[in-house]
C-alpha cells in the first residue's frame, strides 16, 4: 500500500539501499523519510563484503557519507543498520526486519513506513515487508550509482578533479569531498585497476548477440575441522580468499571440472574413489548479482575428507596461496572473501545467525 506522508505520521521510517555512492536521488528519499517519522533507520546492504569496484566503501564509510549530507539537527535522528548479502530474499528480508525492530526498540503498535522507489526488477524487495506502509516515490532524477562509480574509478589519474566537478548535479558536495579524500587512500588505485580489468573483460563480450552466461565450478573441501581456501592471484578479487574453482571446459562434466580446478589450484589429488566417496553435496549458486563478472552460475561441490589430518597443498595456476583454514575462524574473515564465496561457505557450514 502506498500512502502520502502528508496523510499520516509514523513512529519509524526505513530506507534500504547499498548507497555506493550516496547521490541526490537517495538524499531525496532520506529527506522524505525524515519528514515522515522522528526516527529514520537506514539499512545498508552489502555490509560485510570485501572492497571491490562494486562495493568500494565499508558500511561505516557509507554511513559517514550519508551523515555528512544531512543537516546537523537531523543526524541524531538517523540510525544505521548493516545488512550482509545473503543472496536469499526471504532470509535477507528477515534480517532487515529483525534489525530494524531491534534498533527502533519496537513494541506492539509501533508504526513503520518504508520509503523507496521502484527503479527496476531489483526493487521488488520493497513489497516484501507486510505490516509496514510502503511510501513509493517516483524516480528522483536520472542518477545511477553504478555510473558514478564508473566515472570515479575510470578517471583515477589526473582527470579525477574534473570528474568530481562534473558530478555536482548528481551528488551532494559532501559526497564529492568524501570521494576526493578517499582517493588518497591506497584502496583507490587498487580498485581502479580492478575496475579497468573488469571493463576490458566485459568489452571482449560486447559483440555477443546475447548477454553471456558463464558456468563455473567450485570445490568446498573440509577435513579435520578445516576448509581448503586459496588467495586469488589475479583480478578480479586479487588477494582475496576464495574456494578453489573456475570455468567448466567444453568436454567436462561439472564434477570433472571441480576435480581438475581443485588439483590445478591447490595440488590436492586423491584417488578417484576417495573423492567420489567424499562428495556429500552439490549446490547451484545462481543469484544474478553473485559475481562482478556478470551472470555466473556455479556448481559448488562439498567434499568431506573426514577427521584426519589435512593433506599437504601447494598453490598453483591462478592461486597465489592455498591453505587449510579452521571453519570456526571463517566468520571473522567475512570481509576478505571474493564475490559470494563466504555465502557459499555459510550455506554449507551455517556460519552466521539466521533471523
The Cα radius of gyration reads 22 Å
- Tell me the strand percentage band: 15-25%
Q: Enumerate how many helices there are, as a single number.
A: 11
Fold-level CATH name of the largest domain: Rossmann fold
Keywords: Nucleotidyltransferase, Transferase
Domain Nudix hydrolase: 209-348
Organism: Polaromonas naphthalenivorans (strain CJ2)
InterPro entries: Cyt_trans-like, NUDIX_hydrolase-like_dom_sf, NUDIX_hydrolase_dom, Rossmann-like_a/b/a_fold
Which descriptors would you attach to this protein?
single chain; 355 residues; alpha/beta; Rossmann fold; Nucleoside Triphosphate Pyrophosphohydrolase; 7-stranded mixed β-sheet; 5-stranded parallel β-sheet; 11 helices; 33% helix; 21% strand; globular; disordered N terminus
Outline:
The protein has 355 residues and is of the alpha/beta class. Helix content is 33%, strand content 21%. Strands 6, 7, 8, 9, 10, 11 and 12 form a 7-stranded mixed sheet that branches. Strands 3-2-1-4-5 form a 5-stranded parallel sheet, with helices on both faces.
Q: What's the arrangement of secondary structure elements?
A:
Layout: E1 12-17, H1 24-36, E2 39-44, H2 59-68, H3 72-75, E3 78-82, H4 89-104, E4 112-116, E5 133-136, H5 145-154, H6 160-166, H7 173-182, H8 186-203, E6 213-223, E7 226-232, E8 241-242, E9 245-247, H9 254-266, H10 272-278, E10 279-285, E11 295-304, E12 319-326, H11 341-349
Parallel strand pairs: 1-2, 1-4, 2-3, 4-5, 6-11
Antiparallel strand pairs: 6-7, 6-9, 7-8, 7-12, 10-11
Protein name: Cytidyltransferase-related domain protein
InterPro entries: Cyt_trans-like, NUDIX_hydrolase-like_dom_sf, NUDIX_hydrolase_dom, Rossmann-like_a/b/a_fold
Keywords: Nucleotidyltransferase, Transferase
Amino acid at each position: 500500500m502506498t500512502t502520502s506522508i502528508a496523510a499520516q505520521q509514523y513512529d519509524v521510517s526505513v530506507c534500504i539501499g547499498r548507497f555506493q555512492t550516496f547521490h541526490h536521488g537517495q538524499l531525496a528519499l532520506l529527506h522524505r523519510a525524515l519528514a515522515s517519522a522522528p526516527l529514520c533507520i537506514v539499512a545498508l546492504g552489502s555490509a560485510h563484503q570485501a572492497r571491490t569496484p562494486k562495493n568500494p566503501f565499508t558500511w561505516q564509510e557509507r554511513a559517514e557519507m550519508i551523515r555528512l549530507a544531512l543537516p546537523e539537527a537531523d543526524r541524531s535522528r538517523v540510525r544505521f543498520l548493516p545488512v550482509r548479502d545473503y543472496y536469499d530474499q526471504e532470509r535477507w528480508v528477515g534480517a532487515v526486519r529483525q534489525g530494524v525492530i531491534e534498533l527502533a526498540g519496537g513494541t506492539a503498535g509501533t508504526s513503520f513506513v518504508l520509503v523507496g522507489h521502484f527503479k527496476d526488477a531489483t526493487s521488488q524487495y520493497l513489497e516484501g515487508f507486510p505490516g509496514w506502509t510502503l511510501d513509493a516515490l517516483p524516480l528522483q532524477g536520472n542518477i545511477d550509482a553504478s555510473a558514478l562509480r564508473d566515472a570515479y574509478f575510470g578517471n583515477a589519474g589526473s582527470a579525477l578533479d574534473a570528474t568530481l566537478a562534473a558530478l555536482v548535479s548528481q551528488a551532494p558536495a559532501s559526497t564529492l569531498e568524501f570521494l576526493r579524500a578517499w582517493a588518497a587512500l591506497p584502496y583507490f588505485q587498487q580498485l581502479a585497476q580492478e575496475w579497468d580489468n573488469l571493463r576490458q573483460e566485459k568489452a571482449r563480450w560486447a559483440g555477443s548477440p546475447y548477454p553471456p552466461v558463464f558456468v563455473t565450478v567450485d570445490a568446498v573441501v573440509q577435513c579435520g575441522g578445516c576448509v581448503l581456501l586459496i588467495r586469488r592471484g589475479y583480478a578480479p578479487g586479487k588477494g582475496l580468499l576464495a574456494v578453489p574453482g573456475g570455468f567448466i571446459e567444453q568436454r567436462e562434466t561439472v564434477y570433472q571440472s571441480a576435480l581438475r580446478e581443485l588439483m590445478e589450484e591447490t595440488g590436492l589429488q586423491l584417488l578417484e574413489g576417495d573423492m567420489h566417496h567424499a562428495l556429500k553435496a552439490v549446490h547451484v549458486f545462481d543469484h544474478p548479482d553473485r559475481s562482478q563478472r556478470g551472470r555466473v552460475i556455479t556448481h559448488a561441490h562439498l567434499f568431506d575428507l573426514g577427521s584426519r589430518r589435512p593433506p599437504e597443498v601447494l598453490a598453483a595456476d591462478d592461486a597465489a596461496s592455498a591453505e587449510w583454514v579452521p571453519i570456526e575462524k571463517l566468520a571473522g574473515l567475512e570481509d576478505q572473501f571474493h564475490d559470494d564465496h563466504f555465502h557459499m561457505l555459510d550455506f554449507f557450514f551455517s556460519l552466521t545467525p539466521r533471523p
